[in-house]
Write a sequence for this structure.
């Protein structure tokens, strides 16, 4: 069909089919071939999406926990990078300056024996008796002067040793429960407490006896109520008050 069309074109131009002009006309009338592109075209979108999915599968899924982990790791790296090396070096220990001796020389007589020592000005008479002289019969109860378990005699008068500083008693005479009597020779008040069972656990008994002995030299009425009032500074958590009053009244009547 194409050849017939070319012959018609040549005939219309007045040139016979086999002439040179006819061949030139046929050559010009041929369709030109389009050259092939030698470069590789871009992959279809499906391939690109697959490659992107494979690359993203290397990283963990983004969650709240992984995000906080990345933030913490970045902060730690930044802190280590900014901190100077000297911050990690151990500082040399500095020797403490010498402290001047704040003790005070104290002389006092305890249970008939003279004792001389340099003590801290903050030391209470109770701690000095218990810790330094090892006279543990005097008890530490409330340490606020409210229970009376620490009662001792200072120059014949009862005091709460937990509220008295030992430095205040330089030259004084102190008597504790150990100096009141011995197991073989009990004080009459000690014997009365044993006879009337004026104790249970025994923790407050030393203070109770020391207060009761001092009461014998104090102005006090003869009634039981007067004795209870005079002994109100000594607490017995076991509740042996009636027996304590009976023991005191027995000694007062002698």
């Amino acid at each position: 069909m194409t050849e017939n069309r070319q012959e018609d074109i040549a005939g219309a131009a007045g040139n016979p089919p086999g002439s040179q002009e006819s061949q030139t006309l046929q050559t010009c009338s041929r369709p030109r071939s389009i050259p092939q592109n030698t470069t590789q075209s871009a992959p279809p979108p499906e391939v690109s999406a697959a490659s992107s999915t494979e690359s993203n599968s290397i990283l963990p899924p983004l969650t709240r926990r992984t995000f906080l982990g990345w933030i913490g790791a970045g902060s730690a790296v930044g802190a280590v990078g900014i901190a100077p090396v000297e911050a990690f070096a151990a500082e040399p220990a500095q020797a403490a300056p010498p402290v001047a001796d704040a003790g005070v020389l104290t002389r006092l007589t305890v249970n008939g024996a003279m004792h001389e020592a340099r003590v801290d000005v903050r030391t209470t008479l109770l701690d000095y008796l218990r810790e330094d002289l090892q006279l543990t019969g005097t008890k530490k109860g409330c340490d606020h002067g409210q229970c009376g378990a620490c009662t001792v005699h200072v120059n014949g008068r009862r005091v709460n040793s937990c509220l008295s500083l030992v430095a205040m008693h330089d030259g004084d005479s102190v008597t504790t429960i150990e100096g009141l009597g011995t197991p073989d020779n009990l004080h009459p008040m000690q014997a009365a407490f044993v006879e009337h069972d004026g104790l249970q656990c025994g923790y407050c008994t030393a203070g109770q006896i020391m207060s009761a002995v001092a009461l014998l030299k104090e102005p006090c009425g003869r009634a039981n109520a007067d004795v209870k009032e005079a002994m109100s500074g000594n607490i017995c958590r076991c509740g042996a008050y009636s027996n304590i009053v009976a023991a005191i009244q027995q000694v007062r009547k002698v």
Q: What stands out?
A: Residues 139 and 203 are 7 Å apart (CA to CA).
